[in-house]
Design brief:
The complex is a heterodimer of chains A (about 230) and B (about 400). Chain A contains seven helices and ten strands. Chain A is of the alpha/beta class and about 230 residues long. Chain B has two domains: about 200 residues, no CATH class; about 180 residues, no CATH class. In chain B, strands 1, 2, 3, 4, 5, 6, 7, 8, 9 and 10 form a ten-stranded mixed sheet that branches. The relative contact order of chain B is 0.18. Classes of the chains: A alpha/beta (about 230), B alpha+beta (about 400).
Chain lengths: ~230, ~400
């Protein structure tokens, strides 16, 4: 039986108050299952990033509750949420967001170091995951010496190396050309199929949606459709 | 996870992301500490030189008088020469040298002028060991013995009296029976010292002086010196015990101006430290706040990746620790080199007149004060880290979502 990785129950998020109150999410119920390769789509302001932030334990809902891998996020303190993000969630951002003073390999090892992984194992896993994303031999390069596509691959490698329950990607292809986009989506799709890694990707990009097994459409902060391929 | 070991390399590399800002902060810290360390050494040297210059003239490091003499120094409060117990205490190894003196108020009269002075009768042999004046003769000679009946005058007094070497002056003072003693003396030597000393102190042989005012073997004071590295107070206590009926004092109560200056020098370095540190703190906080503000997005990323607020605080605090620590090391090296370059002394004779006013020595010998080096460097380092915790706390308190919205 497939395990539930993310459960959102009646999740709402509003910003501001009174007449200026804006409802970014309204009463969202969602369940992401292990092995899902889901895309979150919708027009700008529909709540994609806000929902990803809730699922990623980066922000807390105004109403409702979120569970990650069976753990309810309500009532967790900042340190517990940090531990949850470190051990259960991998992030891939639109702007790559690598640490500029660390090499590609060090960026990947950094997450393992936070997990307290021994140095030998860190290095082995970083080399393996770099090979997995097609950057074998480029580990010593700093982000500034890598192309946008290569940096995003490093970001994917960093997200994967900690063996998270789920990888959340927010517009990961927005800054990439079509060839690189194709390669990156192919890579994530292959990792999903071969290794069973769960992906939730917020995107506008039809090339990403083509690969998704599940397509969730958001409109005005509500899920307007949730279809499986 | 060993937090410091994990974040130390990252913190070090972060420092060099903006080399110009790092170098400016390093200069601020190192020059600030240099000034504290060097001025500490300079002021200590100045204090020592001033003390040395003043004490070596007449005061010595301590004196013994009859009780009441210091309040009213006149012929009626003289004391006998040291008895066996006091002589034994004065000859103890912790005392470098001592000398007996007669000192009475009087007047000196030349063909042109009459001036109030202190007449000192000294034994030249022992006086040479406690006073620098015998070595400051610029014309003529110093006294040959306790029975020398010549007189030594200061350069300034000679000018004011319009007299000179080989001329005669008359000394007048109260006799032991209350009458006025008056005697003519040859000027056998002229000495050069501070103007105050030159104007008010006239020297003759001890025995000659005692005969002049008919006080037999009575003396006014015993002056003593000890090695500079030795603590004075136990010696004063020992002497007081050996001479319970006499008034034994250290220079600190004999020369209040010098004691106050000495105490001020000690306090001044802490005032200077506070001023320097306040300026440095503004620089450090400003730099680190800018560094945190510029990297807001990155702190959001680190929090998103799973760094705890405490770990962000440690990372930023480590950056400050390295930055200030490196500046402190640089400041220590600069100060050590500066002091080393003045190993042969810092000649301030160009400012001799001004220094004389403050009883200052003319050649200073700044020394390495290892205790001061460690104390002030640690203080600057620790206080620097403490003020840098403010920007570190700001970074740690950032919400990951809010921080990542911040433009890179």
């Amino acid at each position: 039986m497939t395990k539930s990785i993310v459960t959102c129950r009646g999740v709402g998020k509003s910003f501001g108050s009174g007449e200026l109150e804006v409802h970014a999410l309204r009463d969202v119920d969602l369940e992401i299952m292990q092995g899902d390769f889901a895309t979150l789509a919708g027009p700008s302001g529909s709540g994609k990033t806000t929902l990803l932030n809730m699922i990623g334990a980066l922000d807390s809902p105004t109403t409702g509750e979120v569970e990650i891998d069976g753990m309810n996020l309500s009532g967790m303190n900042k340190a517990d949420l940090s531990d949850l993000r470190l051990n259960k969630i991998g992030f891939v951002f639109q702007a790559y967001n690598l640490i500029p003073v660390l090499s590609a390999e060090e960026n990947i090892e950094f997450v393992l170091e936070l997990q307290g992984c021994p140095a030998d194992e860190r290095r082995r896993r970083a080399v393996d995951v770099l090979k997995e994303v097609g950057l074998d031999g480029m580990g010593h390069r700093r982000p500034s010496a890598l192309s946008g596509g290569q940096q995003q691959r490093v970001a994917v490698a960093r997200a994967l190396v900690s063996h998270p329950s789920i990888v959340l990607a927010d517009e990961p292809t927005a800054n990439l050309d079509s060839t690189t986009t194709g390669e990156l989506v192919g890579l994530m799709s292959r990792l999903n199929q071969d290794l069973g890694i769960t992906f939730v990707i917020g995107t506008h990009d039809p090339r990403v949606m083509e690969h998704s097994k599940r397509h969730i459409e958001l409109l005005d902060g509500r899920i307007s459709s949730d279809t499986r391929a | 996870m060993n937090t410091v070991k994990t974040f130390a390399p990252l913190a070090w590399r972060n420092l060099w992301r903006n080399p110009r800002r790092t170098v400016i902060t390093l200069i601020v810290v190192s020059v600030g500490l240099w000034s504290v360390l060097f001025f500490n050494s300079f002021l200590t040297a100045w204090g020592e030189a001033s003390k040395d210059a003043t004490l070596s003239l007449l005061t010595g490091q301590g004196q013994i008088h009859a009780v009441g003499y210091l309040n009213d120094p006149n012929i009626e409060v003289l004391m006998p020469p040291p008895n066996a117990a006091l002589t034994k205490a004065l000859n103890a190894p912790q005392i470098k040298a001592w000398a007996s003196r007669l000192q009475v108020p009087g007047v000196v009269v030349s063909e042109y002028k009459t001036l109030a002075v202190n007449i000192l009768g000294v034994d030249p042999a022992s006086e040479r060991r406690v006073s620098a004046i015998p070595d400051k003769i610029v014309e003529g000679r110093y006294l040959n013995g306790a029975d020398d009946d010549g007189v030594i005058l200061g350069v300034s007094l000679v000018d004011r009296l319009k007299t000179g070497l080989g001329r005669r002056v008359i000394l007048m003072s109260q006799n032991v029976d209350g009458s006025l003693s008056e005697q003519s003396f040859d000027v056998v030597g002229i000495y050069d010292s501070t103007k105050e000393t030159e104007d008010f102190y006239v020297f003759t042989g001890l025995t000659t002086g005692q005969k002049f005012i008919n006080v037999k073997d009575k003396i006014a004071q015993i002056v003593f010196t000890i090695p500079l590295d030795q603590d004075l107070e136990p010696t004063v206590a020992d002497l007081a015990q050996a001479a319970p009926d006499l008034d034994v004092r250290s220079w600190k109560t004999l020369s209040l101006f010098l004691a106050t200056t000495d105490s001020f020098m000690q306090s001044f370095i802490y005032i200077w430290l506070a001023v320097v540190f306040s300026l440095m703190a503004i620089g450090i906080v400003n730099t680190q706040l800018m560094a945190v503000f510029e990297r807001t997005h990155e702190f959001g990323l680190l929090r998103a990746l799973g760094m705890k607020p405490r770990q962000v605080l440690i990372l930023v605090a480590l950056e400050s620790t390295f930055l200030i620590g490196f500046g402190v090391l640089l400041g220590m090296v600069l100060a050590a080199l500066t002091i080393w370059s003045l190993y042969d002394g810092l000649d301030l004779s160009a400012f001799a007149e001004g220094l004389e006013m403050f009883q200052g020595g003319q050649v200073l010998f700044p020394q390495y004060d290892i205790g001061g080096f460690i104390l002030f460097s640690l203080l600057i380092w620790l206080m620097g880290i403490l003020v840098a915790l403010w920007p570190a706390r700001r970074a740690a308190k950032l919400s990951p979502v809010e921080a990542m919205r911040h433009a890179t």
